[in-house]
Amino acid sequence: MKKLALPLTLVLAGALLVTPAVTAMNRLPIFLNGQKAPVEGVLIEGSTYVPLRYLSEAMGAKVDYRDGQVFVETGQGKPGAGHLSLTAEQVKKLPTKRLSERIEKDKIEYAVTAISYTTRGTTRYVNLQLMETSGTHAHFGTIPTIAYQLSDGTIGVLADFNLTADKDLNAKWRRTFTLEFESPGQVQYYIYIPGNSKEPIGKWSTY
């Protein structure tokens, strides 16, 4: 079950949208599957915000507030992630980067910037930090999909993780996520599939 840990009760709609900057707060109607919702979104300084609880529960997710954070449990991984199929040959052909090295695609630069580990009880967890930056306002898409290749060649896709967005590192031209998940084993590469793409752009070495 994917759990999203967010620090606010309002979530940025569509991550970062291409909209003109404004200085006042404007209210916007929300349409969910073509039907007008009984709640409204707001436009603040060029960013569009929507009520997290209403939209999440309307789409079948569970919303809970614990310890100063909002947790959204969708009951499944990112749509389409479970259908991602990668072969060892495809992974081999992807460009290889070290931590913090970037790959540019469609005027957006992507990077795996940090990896750390924690242990709770007998379970080891990985904290994987991702960063996406652009020189202009950009449509980053949804949450990226992260796959991995173990040292024995096994390839898998992360579908069960906690996600935290660091508001101090986010801006209209940049967003940063930290994914926490149970370690799948000895990972050699993390493979990045942007939220606005169905294809991997590269792999980052853990060594």
Explained architecture:
This protein is mainly β. The chain has two domains: 3-73, no CATH class; 81-205, Immunoglobulin-like, CATH 2.60.40.1240. The chain has helices at residues 52-58, 88-93; strands at 3-6, 10-12, 26-32, 35-44, 47-51, 62-66, 69-73, 96-97, 103-105, 108-120, 123-134, 145-150, 155-157, 162-165, 174-182, 187-193, 202-205. The strands form three sheets. The chain has an eight-stranded mixed β-sheet with strand order 6-7-1-14-15-11-10-9. A five-stranded mixed β-sheet has the order 8-17-16-12-13, with no helix packed on it. The chain has a four-stranded antiparallel β-sheet with strand order 2-5-4-3. The longest helix has 7 residues, at 52-58. The protein is globular and about 50 Å long. 21% of the residues are buried.
**Arithmetic mean of pLDDT:** 78
> Which sheet architecture does the biggest sheet show?
8 strands, mixed
| Helical content class | under 10%
Report the uncertain regions.
5-23, 76-82
> Roughly how many Å apart are the termini?
29 Å
Give the H and E element order. Answer: EEEEEHEEHEEEEEEEEEE
The radius of gyration computed from the alpha-carbon positions, rounded to a whole number of angstroms, is: 18 Å
CATH class category label of the largest domain? Mainly Beta
